[in-house]
Design brief:
Among the domains are: about 65-215, 3-Layer(aba) Sandwich (Rossmann fold), CATH 3.40.50.300; about 220-295; about 310-400, Arc Repressor Mutant, subunit A, CATH 1.10.10; about 580-675, Serine Threonine Protein Phosphatase 5, Tetratricopeptide repeat (Alpha Horseshoe), CATH 1.25.40. α31 (about 730-745) packs parallel to α33 and α35 packs parallel to α37 (about 860-875). The protein has 39 helices and ten strands. With about 900 residues, it is mainly alpha-helical. The radius of gyration is 42 Å and the shape is elongated. The chain has a five-stranded parallel beta sheet with strand order 4-5-6-3-7, sandwiched between helices. A three-stranded antiparallel beta sheet has the order 8-10-9. A two-stranded antiparallel ribbon has the order 1-2. β1 (about 25-30) and β2 (about 35) form a beta hairpin.
Amino acid sequence: MREHGDVQPGAQAAGDGGVTVSHAQGLQVGDRNVQHNHFPAAAVSPVSVRPAAVPAPDGLVNVAVAPGVFVGRGTQLRQLDEVLAEPGAAVVQAVHGLGGVGKSTLAAQWAWQHRDRYRPVWWIDADTTAGIDAGLATLATALQTDLPDGLSLEVLRERALQWLASHDGWLLVLDNVNDPGDVARLSARVGTGRVLVTSRRATGWAGIATAIALDVLDLDDAVEAMRQVLAGSGRDRDADGLVQVARELGCLPLAVDQAAAYLAETGLSSSAYLQLLKQYPANMFAHGGEGAGERTIARVWRVTLDRLADTPLAGKILRVVAWYAPDAIYRALLAGLADPPTIARALGRLAAYSMITLDEHTLTVHRLVQAVARTPDPEDPHRQPDDIDTARTQAIAELRAAMPDDWRLPKHWPRWRALVSQVEALAEHSSNRIDNDTAASSLYNQAAVFLHDQGVVARTIPLFKQALSDRRRLLSDDHPDTLTSVNNLASAYKAAGDLGRAIPLFKQALSDRRRLLGDDHPGTLTLMLNLAGAYEQAGDVGRAVPLLERTLSAYKRILGDDHADTLNAMNGLASACASTGDLGRAVPLFEQSLTDCRRVLGEDHPQTLIVASNLASAYTSAGDVGPAVPSCEQSLTDCRRVFGDDHPQTLSAVRSLAHAYEVAGDVARAIPLLEQSLTDYRRTLGDDHPDTLSAVNSLAFAWASAGDVGRAVPLFEQSLTDCRRVLGDDHPHTLTLMNNLASAYEHAGDVGRAIPLFEQSLTGRRRVLGDRHPDTLASMNNLANAYEQAGDMGRAVPLFEQAFTGRRRVLGDHHPDTVLSLNNLATAYWTVGDVDKAVPLLEQSITYCRRVFGDDAPGTVLSLNNLAFAYRARGDVSRAVPLFEQALAGCRRVFGDDDPRTKLVEESLTLLCGSNE
């Protein structure tokens, strides 16, 4: 019988030690002696030690030393600090993003920075469940280095989980998790510690982890990362080149590192790298510097697509959107690929793996993902050449199907604006491809026509050039579509102010259409109208007006009075007449055209608004201030509503209103409009566009009119330099700037610099525009003024006479310029002592000034003063005094008491009254 307390052989004594006791007897009792036998203590098996009893070793960190090049990410590091420092039994943080965006690098950096806070810091490659199990097993052996070999992975994993569950203060990094469920299962077991997860999966983290989306680097940080890799090579100082490389790579960290390593290894320049990237993308995406191994962008994303192999449409979608712009790609552009539920599932899968970003109507994809996806690689099952060709064909078809029918209708413009950027991207990505059909060229032409109508000139030319090149190759020079492309490209050059290229193309296209289609074909008439417009823009009105007259007559005969093309031709002829100064003909033509456009096309049709704006400007040019200002104000309101603030037609309407204010004497309202207009022109069209140069001139002229020559002169000088460089010495814009700069010099008192410029301007205008053109007559008047200021009345008076006679004949008696010339001529007669000629003209001038400008206009007030001086010079004090009194009252109202002009009139009146006492 066993006595209580006996320990059976092989049994374990109670206690945490888990010591095994041998069955040999250690105490023997006999009647002769007592013998004590001493045995050594039995060995303790490591496996028998419970994980909870295993202490956390000091310094147990298996995270590789933080990378030598780490820049930026300050915000994300602080986010990790905040989340992982939160109190609680367990905290799980997930960093998700596109492959290559730097998730693992960020996690390694943060873990290394905090290695002294946690015991241990353990990194696990967690792309599969098996990988997590293996990482946990390795952790178990690291925690207990004396564990015997041969323990199964399951036993080791379980020991690691028990250890994590019974300790805190540790950090586990699960890198590249593919299934959020793996993290959920681990968290449920351990319930303590801190877990930092990296994953390409953007979804599935709710209730499991706090998620942070990681994006690409800022441009400055991307450049700095490259610079650090290249430090000491000399190429690190190529700031502009590194910026270009970083931008081309979309600031994706892996791509930036790959490029920098390649540059460091090969010694190539940034520009050479970009050229290789353009010419040999497949090779460049697949190779980095020495030791790149599997960490190249092509290999990284292939892994992701392998995981999406169960959704073949996902890869197809990626190859299609690779031909578009990276941002704001309409989901509707995928409608032809599958039914909506299938597309939605494929998009969801791509978004889940951070290959795209989704919102309700659009998707976004990184530009480098696109570049890889459209680069053929026979070794990559996701980038087979035939599949990529098919995807481009599908991208073209989807864009053509999505384009609204009528690009001229404002209701379609938002969709057009969104789609043309995709067409431009397609054209850019297709620059090295040769098409076998005209689908792409038709798409390019469509998009460019819309952009041309929107006034976005610089963006139209590459598209028109590509369309023309393709059509010439595929269709022949004489095909109607090719002829259309010639006309369209010429129109783009004309809009860009490049008349040296525009006019020859127009002439070539017109000759071809006459030969192939005949004189009366609508296409031929369009070319006639366009060529005439180019002649007019070049200042060759002698060719423009007769050609426009023939074109309008033909349109009326062939298409009828109410056809839109006929109305457009009438507007073109009216504009040309206005350019020649024939406002008596231009205004009625504009009025008739506007009436017909409103009746036929409607109030808000773009053509109607253009004609309305032209008519308002014609009123201003004719000096008819009454209807000019309200017409210009209404035109600007309508243009802003229909076209938007940045459309060239709207910007033109702003300048027209400012000019109307100037003519009405309200320069203070004109200048802010012109300043904003110039800013908008520079932003939308660029510094060298003719409209921008003209806007500089308008603002400078307004400052000069306001008496601020200190601001006017530098603007005029810069504008003249730019006009000569961009347009040439004989362009009407250049001649206008020459005249205006001379006027500014004159107002600044520098007549010596003014006269040569006035003479050059007059000579050029006579040669280019003719003697009767209003601008030529203005140059006559201005040069005469300069001669007068220089005291050369022998030259001044004949020019004043020519200018007045010409303006009276061309512009009429009541035009502001005619009234100005009348006053100038009268003053010149008075200056040379011919008072008998001066007085009648001054009397007539006051009548016209009051009628045209009003009683309180500066010109009217100064004319009163001039006539008063003339009466005094003739000794007619009784008539002089009342006029001086009227002039003084007017000067005080218009200029103020302290203005020099007011003081001059006041002194004249005082002297006259004093001498008369």
